[in-house]
Amino acid sequence: MMGALQEDDKYASYNTPMDGEPAPNYYPFDGCKVPATTDIGFQDWEDSHDLSCCQANLARGLAQVSEWAVLTDRSAMYLNFYGSSAAQTKTPAGKEIVLSQSTQYPIEGAVRIEISSLEQAEQFTLALRIPSWSLLNSITVNGEEMTGIVPGEYYRIDRTWKEGDVIQLQLDLSVHFWEGDVRYEDKTSIYYGPVLLAADERVSGAGAQNEIFTAKALQSATVSSGAENDCWLYVDVPVSESKTVRLIDFSGAGHKIGDRYGNYYSWLNVAEDLPVRVYRTGEMPVWVSFAEYSVQTDFVNCRGEAGQTVRAGETVQLSFDKALKSFRIVAQNGAEVSYLEKDGVYSFTMPAQDIRIEAVGSYYTGNIAVQGENATALLQGVSANEGQKVTFEVFVKEGFELSSVKVETANGQIEYVKEGDTYTFEMPASDVTVHVQAKEQTKPENPGEQEQEGCSSSFAAASVLGACALLGGAAALLRKKKRD
User: Fold this and answer.
1) What are the structural domain ranges in the chain?
2) pTM confidence score
């Protein structure tokens, strides 16, 4: 509907082609977005020249948003429409309630929802629609983080709601695709969140529709306001190291350039085959790119796709050899990825960016005791976590020498590494005792031999001194004789 609304916000077009280009040899306005009053002017009535079937249907379509924006049954409310608004409706119990939204959606993905006009607290389920193309989402209720958000499903929050409750929803307005067929078999439509993008002659320049885009380049595009050109948004996409192409929202395309209607194109060239992925059998398929992104983690006992690359939109499952104290998934842009945990298996939808798994194991904390005989071990602490490196030094009583060092658990000895005077071992999932033992230094078997050796050494030293004295005396006699 918004694509059919003309730039003056008054008229609707009769024909709203996805590629707006005048068709040769046809009615002058075929292929262009022009007001229905021009295209099918024969419907004009006297005194009602602005009325046509298109005008009436556009007004009706916009008005009908209120019919499905918020739906209610006996147990739940379903929020389907996102946009700056205040929806006054009834709770499942029939009470008055207003859901107010503060947001720039669909230009930005942040949506703030506040509950008001609810005179009495009520327990019911509030179900938020999560679009199938939104892969990286987050929800908080009064600051409390919600988990288990699945793209393409309602996220149900069952609680007692009251006046002033605030929900913060962050949707992922990433790029996704739709492949053409038949006439447009080699073309692809590009969407930014719910917004169809187009190369527009007026804003993008002539020939922009011939550029070749890649999924990776589109994911790194820069998004900004297009208000200066009566557009919702600009999406600047790098197509080479030195060139960027500006795409705009489809609703802002096809405006007049001088006295003619500008050309625009939403069937574009994407240099990748795009496989189809169906969220629910029999429902609309969603086209995603072949682009793959990495799953990184330092947790060594992780099973699944950790350390691999995964296509955006695919389901990732991880499990761990140990119970975890904490677990979270952080995307490249710093946002947290929602996940589901069941029986120790963590599942989430891969976003269109690299992610990092941050997991902290629930380790056993064991005590470390020291038993020494004529020696002791000095440790940095009396306890340690499972897997932690533990170091200690051994001190021996004077007159004794170290004879053995053992590190033991109730199940037997564990290995250690000795470097100089330092010993290191890895803390097991149990208590540990460090045993150090020293024995008295060894004494000679025949003490007399030692005394004799000592005397011989003294005698040898005296003999050398005596020889030196004789040599000194002889030298003095030679000098005296030479003078004489």
Assistant:
1) 1-63, 64-170, 292-361, 365-440
2) 0.66
